[in-house]
From TrEMBL:
Region (Disordered): 50-79
Listed Gene3D superfamilies: 3.90.550.50
Coiled coil: 328-355
GO molecular function: glucuronosyl-N-acetylgalactosaminyl-proteoglycan 4-beta-N-acetylgalactosaminyltransferase activity; N-acetylgalactosaminyl-proteoglycan 3-beta-glucuronosyltransferase activity
Domain of life of the source: Eukaryota
Bias type Pro residues, positions: 53-65
EC code: 2.4.1.-
Membrane disposition: Single-pass type II membrane protein
GO CC terms of this entry: Golgi cisterna membrane
Protein name: Hexosyltransferase
Pfam families, sorted: CHGN (PF05679)
Enzyme class: transferase
């Protein structure tokens, strides 16, 4: 029995052995917790207090209030939930929140740049500044005393009406504070005879704290003044922080009346010193403001001093040519630095990759660029496009062969030249290559790394002794994707009024009722800021009989019912007589009857208006910048798709049985001012040949006669039911062909058409 008991005990211990560490850990933890709790309780009961010193509160006990401070008896100490209450006697007002969270949180833009110019140098040095650095800054304004008769293109000019230097500086500081003081963290002020390295200035402000009062530039001593006080020389530019500008603004009037000076930069420096006690510095928070003073007859291309290459600002620049030469030289310096940095990074990558498990085999080509995309199935394979020096064998319009021209031709030429440069750099002086012919060219766009090229080149190789021979060599190149940049766009809101324009013909009468019902439900009932104008297009025959039989009488009656239902709404209509309802001619009539700042939405009778799309129309259309041509979703013919079955109506089937119609450009969002500008250029081009307008749409007007961005994108908010459009044979061949293609592709998908043909063949065979 003893042996049996020992065996059973051993079996139990063997079974519990894996759980022994867990049991021991739990026991030890519980014991330590009990000991710590009893020790803490003992300390709380027997604490020693210094004479006259209050005892600290127990753990978990509520804090005792200080004298005069809030405590448990003060309601303000604890957070309270304030219930929402709206006065029923006051009308409801829709709360418009900011579009971007950055605006709502009070974030500021980084840098504002002001350039001080004059009437004499506005068309010379100021233009040179605008062409060299303006595109690097998000906001740049030019300030002058007297306005020139003509402001150069692309420049925003503020004229104060007085050429006196001190007055110009005073008014400029007031203007900056009033219009931009609450929007920017830094303010950079420079003259038009200053060349500034824009990227270096932008990098400087990113390394400075915005919590300090900053007056940074080239520090100069006052003539006959305090040796400790310094002002920033205006010729080399200077940087002011937002906090300093806010503190300085109340004293500007006093500075104007009390401080006498000839130079505006000295006047501003004296004002900052006298009223704020802040002097100009050339170094702050470890950042240096490097400058370089140009001597007469300086050759920028020959300047190799370290002081010149590190300069943020160069002064004085005497003429436009010197400004462009400086910009070219500094651009070359920055480019050389970038290439050297790339080589250093590639060397570091090679050294580090050798220590990885993959070893040197893990180094991708080019070094530092992402590896090529690896498809997981045959549907993800990126195809190569074949080209020669004259032709491209993968054309945008689907044709098998087209002439290589435009940007594609420039791209191929640049790649060939670059390939030869790299070959000569690698093999010289032993061999020197020259191109004879491009045998084969292949390219493809890899979204993970950029554009890839493979070239088969027929080269002539010349040795050092002058011997030459022909050889074929294959080279591979990559044009990598560069740094992604956010393009600054003008700020727009969702509060803009949208003017809907609906052209109607006799063929559209069956669909008008549905359009008006959707318009009333989605805009009038929701009080959306949208209006509607109807355009009745009469055929000449119908126009002659309008006194007896008006083909649009039913539509006018429906409009009257809407105006009775919504007393504050008026829906005007315009009657037009024509045989060929050209979209451009119809838009000309509507454009003349509306203000220039009107936002138009050109709709069709099949368009179903909704608030979601109207907001996107407002946001995607920017005056003097961008027009919006949405691609609506066209549902397929239900007779072919469902073949007698019940139509699916659940939300999961949204945008399933249809396609985005790329062949129609009937819907458009644009501002009247932009249309009028493009239309004026079109009129000057075609003179009095109005028949040309019959072959054009509004899209063509903006495409060929405006410099605006044409935003063409799919729009899931525009869903149209299936309808067989009537194509007018009097329109141009291209417009008629696009209309026919839209009808054909809108029937059904290939699988639905194949199933319909199969069922028809089965029915015929039986």
């Amino acid at each position: 029995p003893a042996v049996a008991a020992a065996m059973r005990l051993g079996a139990v211990l063997n079974a519990l052995r894996p759980a022994l560490p867990l049991l021991l850990g739990l026991s030890l933890g519980c014991s330590l917790s009990l000991l710590r709790a009893s020790w803490s309780h003992g300390v709380a009961e027997e604490r020693c207090l210094a004479p006259g010193r209050p005892a600290p509160p127990d753990r978990g006990a509520p804090p005792e209030p200080l004298e005069g401070g809030p405590g448990p008896g003060h309601e303000d100490f604890r957070p309270r939930i304030v219930p929402y209450y709206r006065d029923p006697n006051k009308p409801y007002k829709k709360v418009l929140r900011t579009r971007y969270i950055q605006t709502e949180l009070g974030f500021h833009e980084r840098l504002f740049v002001a350039v001080l110019t004059s009437k004499a140098t506005l068309n010379t040095l100021a233009v040179a500044v605008n062409k060299t650095v303006a595109h690097h800054f998000s906001r740049l304004l030019y300030f002058t005393g007297l306005r020139s008769t003509k402001v150069p293109h692309g420049m925003v000019l503020v004229a104060h009406g007085d050429e006196r230097p001190i007055w110009l500086m005073y008014e400029t500081m007031n203007y900056i504070h009033q219009h931009f003081g609450s929007d920017y963290d830094w303010f950079y002020i420079m003259q038009d005879d200053t060349y500034a390295q824009a990227e270096q200035v932008k990098a400087l402000v990113t390394h400075l704290s915005i919590n300090q009062d900053v007056y940074l530039g080239r520090a100069e001593e006052f003539i006959g003044g305090d040796e400790q006080a310094r002002y920033c020389h205006g010729g080399f530019g200077y940087l002011l922080s937002r906090s300093l500008l806010l503190k300085l603004h109340p004293h500007l009037d006093s500075c104007r009346n009390e401080i006498l000076s000839v130079r505006p930069d000295e006047w501003l420096g004296r004002c900052i010193i006298d009223f704020l006690g802040i002097t100009c510095v050339s170094q702050l928070q470890g950042q240096h403001y490097h400058t370089y003073e140009l001597a007469k007859n300086t050759e920028p291309e020959k300047e190799e001093e370290e002081e010149f290459q590190a300069a943020l600002a160069v002064h004085p620049v005497s003429d436009m040519t010197l400004m462009y030469r400086l910009h070219k030289q500094f651009s070359r310096i920055q480019l050389d630095r970038a290439y050297q940095e790339i080589q250093d990074l590639q060397m570091q990558i090679r050294n580090l990759t050798a220590l990885t498990p993959a070893g040197e085999a893990g180094v991708t080509w080019p070094v530092g660029i992402n590896a090529p995309f690896l498809p997981k199935s045959r549907f993800e394979v990126i195809s190569w496009d074949y080209f020669t020096e004259q032709h491209l064998f993968s054309c945008p319009d689907g044709s098998p062969k087209c002439e290589l021209s435009g940007a594609s031709k420039a791209d191929v030429s640049e790649i060939i030249v670059w390939a030869l440069e790299q070959l000569n750099r690698r093999y010289q002086p032993l061999l020197r290559f020259s191109k004879r012919q491009l045998l084969n060219g292949y390219r493809r766009f890899d979204p993970t790394r950029g554009m890839e090229y493979t070239l088969d080149l027929l080269l002539e190789a010349v040795t050092q002794k002058g011997h030459s021979h022909l050889l074929a060599k294959r080279v591979s190149l990559v044009r990598p994707l560069s740094k992604v940049e956010i393009i600054p766009m003008p700020y727009v809101t969702e509060a803009t009024r949208v003017q809907l324009v609906l052209p109607l013909t006799v063929q559209d009468l069956d669909y008008v009722a549905n359009f008006l019902d959707m318009f009333a439900m989605n805009t009038l009932d929701t009080h959306d800021n949208a209006l509607l104008t109807l355009l009745f297009v009469y055929h000449p025959y119908d126009a002659q009989r309008v006194g007896q039989v008006d083909v649009f009488a039913g539509v006018k009656a429906m409009v009257g019912e809407l105006e009775k239902r919504y007393a504050e709404v008026k829906i005007p209509w315009i009657s037009v007589k024509t045989e060929v309802p050209s979209q451009v001619k119809l838009m000309d009539i509507v454009s003349k009857k509306h203000p220039v700042d009107t936002l138009f939405f050109l709709a069709t009778v099949w368009t179903e208006i909704n608030m979601e799309f109207l907001n996107r129309c407002r946001m995607n259309t920017i005056s003097n910048w961008q027009v919006f041509f949405p691609v609506h979703f066209q549902e397929f013919n239900p007779a072919l798709v469902y073949r007698g079955e019940q139509t699916a109506s659940s939300s999961t089937d949204f945008l399933r049985d249809g396609h985005f119609d790329r062949h129609t450009f009937a819907e458009a969002c644009f501002y009247n001012s932009d249309y009028m500008t493009a239309r004026t250029k079109l009129a000057a081009d075609i003179l009095d040949r109005d028949e040309v307008l019959e072959s054009m749409e509004v899209f063509d007007v903006f495409l060929h006669y405006s410099g605006l961005h044409l935003f063409r994108a799919v729009e899931p908010g525009l869903v149209q039911k299936y309808a067989l459009r009537s194509c007018n044979p009097r329109l141009s061949e291209e417009l008629y062909h696009r209309c026919v293609l839209s009808n054909l592709e809108g029937l059904a998908s290939r699988s639905h058409l194949a199933m319909a043909l199969f069922e028809q063949e089965q029915a015929n065979s039986t």
